[in-house]
Amino acid sequence: MNLNKKSLLSYILLPVSVVYYLLTSFRRLLYRFNFLTIYNFDIPVIVVGNITVGGSGKTPIVIALVEHFKGRGLNIGVVSRGFGGKHGVGSLYVNQESNASESGDEPLLIATQTNVPVVVNTNRVQAVKDLIKDFDVELVISDDGLQHYSMGRKIEIVVVDGKWRFGNGFFLPSGPLREPLSRLNSVDFVVNNGAMHPGEIYSSLVPKFFVNVLTLEKKPLDFFHNQTCHAVAGIGHPDRFFDTLVDLNIDVLPHSFKDHYYYSESDFLFSSNHPIIMTTKDCVKCREFANDNMWYLLTEVDISEDFLNKLQEKL
Fold first, then answer.
1. Distance CA 258, CA 94 (A)
2. Which tens digit of pLDDT belongs to each residue from 268-304?
């Protein structure tokens, strides 16, 4: 079901959505009135989350914040649920040598790009405790976890997809909403990924260069100009990646996979031997069978210094 459109099925599921809304609202009230425990830490925690299911672009924002605070001399750690990974109970410490199938693709991407301690645990409170104990971090950033209320936090950032926003406006399972839109009034910042919107901080992913998955060789953005290339994307909204490549004057043969899809070598046995270009999130899952025909597009988040300064002040 397309959660961005109001279909017959979405209306049929509305009673279930009402139950979901009532249960999640009651749960939040239990935390608000201290019937359920919120664990507060001696160091600040920044949560980068959303109020919808599906990819909104949180992980690139997390990476940008890690690099920002690293540049100011802080010892940073990141916690994540590790969605899609096979890791079970307890904390998994993720580094550049970890396997994405165990850790999840996004934690491995963060660890690879930032070289900071990353801990995967479904219990985020324990993950933060382990980061503090084992790495003496001064600041923790949580990739997702807005609804993990037991984890105390200093700052809440909600990332909104600039194109899809809140879909059909219904709660799960009729639509993509995890929390009501009024939740945006209680967070510290709302970051819009890809569009200008009143009251929201604009951000965008800016292409930097192409990197060979096998050799790590870098090439400028015009390297594939007017060439036909296979484009592979297993992300929330793959069309956004394909459109970026088209804007770089690449003749794109698109190959979409579901978000967090784990690739095998056979997934890349295309009928033609054109270069293969993928996202950074995809490439960490292809290192074991990469060849020199595979590339990824490295991007960086463009976000205002004013936002980063205000974030610094709140800490």
1. 23
2. 999 999 999 999 999 999 999 999 999 999 999 999 9
Residues 6+ apart with CB under 8 A from 228: 250, 251, 253, 272, 274
**Token pair 């801990």: residue:** 119
Among candidate residues 178, 199, 220, the one where a domain is terminated: 199
CA angle 184–190–196, rounded 5-degree value: 120
Domain-embedded: residue 26: yes
**With contact defined as beta carbons under 8 Å apart, do 277 and 232 qualify?**
yes
Task: Identify whether 315 is part of a domain.
Answer: no
Contact at 8 Å (CB) between 304 and 260?
A: no
Quickly list H helices, the chain: 8-12, 14-32, 58-70, 100-103, 105-114, 124-135, 238-247, 280-283, 305-314
Tokens encoding 226: 């007017």
> Are residues 241 and 215 located together in one domain of the fold?
yes
- CA angle at residue 92 from 289 to 104, to 5 degrees? 40
User: pLDDT, tens digit, for every residue of 233-262?
Assistant: 999 889 999 999 999 999 999 999 999 899
Same domain, 217 and 80: no
CATH number at residue 173: 3.40.50
Q: Does residue 211 share a domain with residue 195?
A: no
